Amino acid sequence: MKSKVFIIAGEASGDMYGASLIEKISISKKYVEFYGIGGDLMKEKGITLSAHITDLNIMGFIDIIFKLFYLKKLINRTVSEIVKYNPDLILFIDFSGFNQKIAEKLKKLGFKSKKIKFVSPQIWASRYNRIKTITKIYDTLICILPFEKEIYNKYDSKFDCRYVGTPILDNFVLKLSANEFYNRFSIPPRLKKIALFPGSRNSEIRYHLPVLLKLIEKRRDLFFIVSQSMTISSKYINQISGFENVRIVDSSFQWEILKYSDVALVKSGTTVLQAAITKTPSILFFKTSPLNFMIAKQIIKVKLIGLPNLIIGKEIIKELVQENFTVSKIDEELNNIILNDEYKEIMLDNLQIVNDRLGSKGALSRVADIILENL
Predict the structure, then answer these.
(1) What was the pLDDT predicted at 299?
(2) 122, 32 in Cβ contact below 8 A?
């Protein structure tokens, strides 16, 4: 008899994790059927999709307000599909707001299937009181940051919270050598190379692109390798690709883009930690609408937003947020890293400390083992 697993992954990183977990679970337990929300990577591994992550391309509070009706409809539809499908286990991957609403509704319905949440909401950064609901609606919570398990254990020592390490380490595989990478994408090896990750949502790229285009135009002495996520609209990519000192590279080569660049210019998010893992000196940036930012300032309680900075407890990577996200400030930090060897060495030493604290590979295998325990 087949075991049935319903997976909900609403973002590109979740799609990547989900695909890896489907593969690992299928190898260990052949008779498992997967259904749910995900992306192309999960689909390639055999899941039947009820919705695609591109349907959830939402960023910020204003976007949520405008798409509230659609989100409510999708949440209700997903709950109905879960009840109808009647899985043995539901795996909620990251995408915490959306997933929490679904888990709450299932809890109210008395739905008995095992509910596992992979990746904790950042309750340490904002809205800590969510911990009360989280510990009630999920049977198991799997954390990826070293300090998170302690937070949950302190609140409720009986709650099943497990720390597995960061899954990003599992995916750190270089498919090409430096020379192979440069030759394949016609990248001049002698120029200083800047890895540019503008974001994976169209709603965020529209705020980042004006500054980034000016920077690319100003710094003709640098070569920008731009990561193209499958969720980015071609109209934005076309605006960037017109420059001679730019190469657009598919995000499936994101590790090569980071590893073989001199500096990474990265939108706040998971990729900042990926850059730290490759030990690439980095600059973090983020900009949203003034209203979104004003709301976020009232909610977010931490002074730093970059995961490497949070892990080490100080700003080791410059954070250029909102009004500080300007061409002149990016330019200044680029020069600090490229021209000041001592400045760069201090950053590299701190990135090594971050890597030491992240631990070893195998996080996704440990997640798969937890899922298999419950099937």
Answers:
(1) 66
(2) no
